[in-house]
Every structure is written in C-alpha cells, then in structure tokens.
Amino acid sequence: MSAAEAGGVFRRARGRTLDAFSSEKEREWKGPFYFIQGADPQFGLMKAWSTGDCDSGGDEWEQEIRLTEQAVQAINKLNPKPKFFVLCGDLVHAMPGIKAVFSGHYHRNAGGIYQDLDMVVSSAIGCQLGKDTHGLRVVVVTAKKIIHRYYSLDELSEKGIEDDLMDLLKEK
C-alpha cells in the first residue's frame, strides 16, 4: 500500500464511523466472520526484560519490530482475510522518566497516584458527565517536575494561566 493509499484509509474514519464498514452492507447479519486481535508489541521491552533493567532499558526495538512484521505477514497470508485487525495494549515500553499519564474520555476530572506515577484524567471540552466545567488542563513541565491545573474555558479565556505556573516557565 502506498503512502497516499494509507493516508486515504485513515481519512475514511469520520463522524464516529469508518466507511470501510458501510451501514448498508453491514446492517443485516450475513453470517460468521472473524477478526484478529493483537496485543502489546511494546517496542523496547524485550531487551529491557532480558537485561533485567525494565526501568531504564527499552532503547533497542529490533526484536519487537521483527515480530510485528512477522505478525503482519502472517495476517496478510490468511485466506479468507479477517474482517479487521485491532491492536490493544502497550505499543511502546515506557521509557525512563515517565512521571504522569494524561487522558480524557471520562468526561470529568479524576486521577490518582500509583508507585510515583500520576494518572491524570481531564474533563471534557464538550459534554460534562460530572460537576466539572467545560475546560482544559494546562501542564507545565520543568526539569524537576510536572505541574498541571484544570481551568474552565471561561477562566482560561478571561484570566489566562496563573502567575505561579508562568513563573515555572521562566526557570532554566
């Protein structure tokens, strides 16, 4: 598949649908099908695991790339072809220095800390499912720490980022 063709495939997903599965063709049951589910190529973990250095390893990906290519080749040889392929889990082994993971989709602010890893869930710009206001999270990263603060859209528009966070940006 050429780069242009590949780009076209990704542009086919719009409006919470993928036109590869048209509603007219998929509306009624047409019989059994299968799909392939893969998990955790986790580029970098194999070397880190083999050396016993899972905290700072992960700088070599050759084994995982070879296995991922093997998986794609095996899938491409199947007949009949699977309806689709879904990849779950970790794509890349976390490199050292990961201090926080930022996510959304919960439509409210939430989070917690586990073994020095801060899990931060930011509420939505759109529909709120909790008591939080429509907003955005400002994340300031310095050499020593990561500081984050959620702002309502009105607050951020009217007041901007607070001085204490702006001062952190001046540090070298």
Overview of this structure, please?
The protein has 6 helices and 9 strands, in the order αββαβααββββββαα. With 172 residues, the protein is α/β, with parallel strands linked by helices. The protein is flat, with a radius of gyration of 22 Å. The N and C termini lie far apart (46 Å). The longest helix has 16 residues, at 62-77. Strands 5-7-6 form a 3-stranded mixed beta sheet, with no helix packed on it. A two-stranded antiparallel sheet has the order 1-2.
Estimate what percentage of residues fall within beta strands: 15-25%
- Biggest β-sheet, characterized? 3 strands, mixed
Main-sheet strand order equals 5-7-6
Distance between the termini: 46 Å
Low-confidence stretches: none
Radius of gyration, Cα only, in angstroms?
22 Å
Give helix % range: 25-40%
Structural class: alpha/beta
Task: Chart the SSEs and their pairings.
Blueprint: H1 3-11, E1 13-14, E2 17-18, H2 23-26, E3 36-39, H3 45-51, H4 62-77, E4 85-88, E5 100-103, E6 110-114, E7 117-121, E8 135-141, E9 146-152, H5 153-159, H6 163-169
Parallel strand pairs: 3-4, 5-7
Antiparallel strand pairs: 1-2, 6-7, 8-9
